[in-house]
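Reopening closed ticket. The problem is back. First fold of the pair:
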Amino acid sequence: MNILLVDDDQELCALLKRYLERELFRVNAVHNANEGLTEALSGKYDAVILDIMLPGLDGISVLKRIRAKKIKTPVLLLTAKSAIEDKVDGLDNGADDYLTKPFSLEELSARIEYEKKTRSFVDRSFPDHMALRRFSNKTPPPVWRPPFAKDID
């Protein structure tokens, strides 16, 4: 799995690159938004890990440009911005996941693995990756419960 890592913190990038490569991912780290956008638009990555607070062009703007080009590559926002509004903004603008700093390397790896497992289902079932989000905004259908479930409650 090829991962693009876009973060201006070069020490963090070096740490993440070493860790993810030990987890058998191939990682390309870039340290500015313009280079990250160019790489993301190349279509050669299976996932993008993107910081929001980048100098110049911010990560949300990069994400919007990626989605405007109909690039469906999963994007995980990895950022120090932990307010609910920031998370909602990131997800509403096309992020597939959102992880706040500080974070656990194991959690990051688990989220990437989860995306890798579920991506084929989403691609087959929903041609537009945002369809899943639009579907999830509706009231869910009632859950079917077998007749004997009343005894369990």
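Second fold of the pair, where the issue appears:
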Amino acid sequence: MLRVAVHFHLYYMDLLDKYLERISLLNNSKCFFTIYLTSSVVNNETELGKSNLKLVQTSLDKYNLANKCKIITVPNIGYDIGPFVHVINSIDLDSYDLVLKIHTKNEKGSNVTALNGVKAGDNLIVFAENIEGDATVYQIENANVIVDGNAKK
């Protein structure tokens, strides 16, 4: 069974459901996955952070992901890369075959940013729908990703 670590960095709360809906497609696949949700806007320290935490927990329940998700509060440093490095350094990478890195994009800006946000979600759908048992190659945004760690364009 394919084991996938999903790093989901959430900054834009208005995109929470859009991304969790797509991540939930992994529930229909033949893989084991753990979601490491990082955020600086979800915490127990401020009223807004507490409110956001409740929204995240409600959405995780809605998409049947609550028992597969670990929420990690991180400082707002390093965009999505700082939190990704934090997660990579805190998990046992040998326990996973793939690491899937996802982060919300501000879709209210330029057309390029909006297009990237749509592509991220659409590629995740492709990823989730193509996991078939022991299959090892998946098409994600024109790149062949091979489970044994080799990747090529």
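Update: turned out to be a display glitch only; the data is intact. The two ends are 25 Å apart (CA to CA). The chain is about 35% helix and 25% strand. Please close again.
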